[in-house]
Amino acid sequence: MSEFTPDLDAYCERIGYRGPRTPDLATLRALHLHHVSAVPFENLDVLLGRRVSLDPAVIADKIILRRRGGYCFEQNTLFRVVLTALGFHVTPLLARVRWQVPADVGTPLTHTVLRVDLDGRGWLVDVGFGAVGATAPLALDATEPQATSHDTRRLVPQADGLVHQVRHGDAWGDVYRFSLVPPPPVDFEVGNWFSCTHPRAHFTNNLVVTRVRGAERLIILNREFAVRHADGSATRRDIATPHDLRALLIEHFGLHLSSDARLAIPAAPW
Predict the structure, then answer these.
(1) Which long-range contacts (C-beta less than 8 Å, at least 24 apart) are formed by 185-193?
(2) pLDDT tens track for 168-201
(3) Residue of 72, 150, 164, 196 marked active site
(4) Active-site residue (options: 111, 150, 164, 196)
(5) pTM, rounded to two decimals
């Protein structure tokens, strides 16, 4: 991973953050929430046939200057270089997505997360999961449920690492499984390559755009737009046309597609 120092003023302006920049837990929590509220999770480039770069300078140009979003490898790479520039100690890790995946189905290492160490305590930090992503850091040494501003999470120890879970009503759902052993850089390249090129990868087949808005989550999945409310209920509507999609992307996510852009969505062709 190449060394890169982002423009912190530009980043803070991008996410609407005007607070302290001291490397402590309060700053980490605030930056985390501001990031997921301002920067949409989206895979538009994949469906436009574009490769996703892991170069931090390219990602910063895309997300900060061009005010786009991105998926986990982009979002958490940017967050890593920002936190590092602020003086945090950050370690990137890889995870296997388990959200809505049957227990007997294996999944590859296609999600990246961050470990941030503060005052002798480790924290799971992830600004790039999308519809059920956490909105706050989670203490890695805690086994009891951890409340965030949007829901309750827990980290369950396993023989090979931890399982991140989210509570829905009275049930717990697996989000992803991860190891605390730092992978070599090539594993991130492989996970990213799979995510944006493999014909059976989730992001080569489905349109996914999400962000946090106050207590709500805004979600586009293929040709459906949903607003998930704080009480767990959701309002949904169909996205009738490509024009309707463009209007939603602009109004709710600040994303602008060029007039000649054509999204190829295998799971929901127009």
Answers:
(1) 185/1, 187/94, 187/109, 188/1, 188/54, 188/73, 188/92, 188/94, 188/112, 189/54, 190/109, 191/73, 191/94, 191/108, 191/109, 191/110, 191/111, 191/112, 192/52, 192/54, 192/73
(2) 888 999 999 999 999 999 999 999 999 999 999 9
(3) 72
(4) 111
(5) 0.95
